[in-house]
Design brief:
By secondary structure, the protein is an alpha/beta fold. The chain is 33% helix and 14% strand. Helix 5 links the parallel strand 5 and strand 6 (102-104). The longest helix is centred in the middle third of the chain and has 25 residues, at 176-200. The model is unreliable at 386-399 (pLDDT under 50).
Length: 399
Amino acid sequence: EEYMGQEITPCLNSIIASKGTLYFDNFYSQLGAGNTSDAEFAVNQSLFGVTDSYTYQLFENNYFHGLPKILKEEGYDTAAFHGYLKEFWNREKIYPLLGFNYFYSSEDYKSDNIKGLGGGRITGISDIAFFEQSVEKMKELKQPFYSFLITLSSHHPFHVPETMKGIIIEKNDEGLFGDYLNAVHYLDKAIGQLFSDLKEEGLYENSIIILYGDHFGISVADITTSKTVSEFLAKPYTYDEMNRVPLIIHIPGFSENERVSISGGQLDLLPTISYLMGEKTLPTVYLGQNLLTAESGFVPIQMHMIKGSFIKDDIVFEMSKDGVFKNSKAWNRKTLEPLDIDLYYNDYKLAKTMVETSEYCLTNDATGSMILEGKDLASIYGSSENIRELSDAITVFTF
């Protein structure tokens, strides 16, 4: 994308266009109430976070067997990197349980403390300094390793000091939208530096590099700014578009370049990454699918779109906020043509069931029962003494 003739993400555009890149242009966040933390939970565990509170806190006593543990069992060293407080989102306690051998937090970085960079109170080390120091820490890991990095500087409300802004913003677009463009432009520069650092330190050629967005930048509920976004996109800025985030998989040495338009979500990353790592089977409970072999995509959404909503390749189904199926709507995301919702009743039920199954598995620690005790899901359903009743009430989350 360009803004007034200015390329917003030149580094990402270059990566997307290069050999060895798979670019997924129909990929979505699948959040719970924990925003970034539930996005990373979905990516690493292929389960939904819950909407009551953040999953890392509610289920810190559960047994988890996601991507970090699966790779760890295959001989990978595992580390998480984030330049903010280690206790935020309960990461300090939960990361070891997820299978990360190391967690590098703000305590382990030398912050450059750039005044005016970052978002609100979620500030700290700049992304460029964060990547530079993280690469130094990666060099100390035992190869092969799985590194999971969470950036910081492009957090809402997207502050970037005037001297670091690379996009000239028109007067009418100043404010949150203009700040967002400059924050993304800065992050893009940082990612370009990360690739350079990995090459310089000899870590690039033997890596698979995956870049994903955790959640939306600008909310549809922000009426003034979302109107500006609609004008920029030249189409309505809807909740499905708000939930759409980037996914780029870059494989040095792979000769092909491909744009993948199957619909995918963060739950799909665990089986997709495992497939790329050569895993034949996945010894865990997971709800996603391998996007590199699936014939069709299916992405249930539970936040910002009501439970039962989904994206199925080019079809968007948005469950009515009053909880009544007949008041819902469906459309083609490319043509915006409205579709007959009755054609998608079974898909609506599947989307709703997937969310509820995930919540049931978390509430009853089904992964632990299945892996540690050898039970199957049917027996867990039948024998659980503490089954949590799933509420029929529909909660609408707005920000």
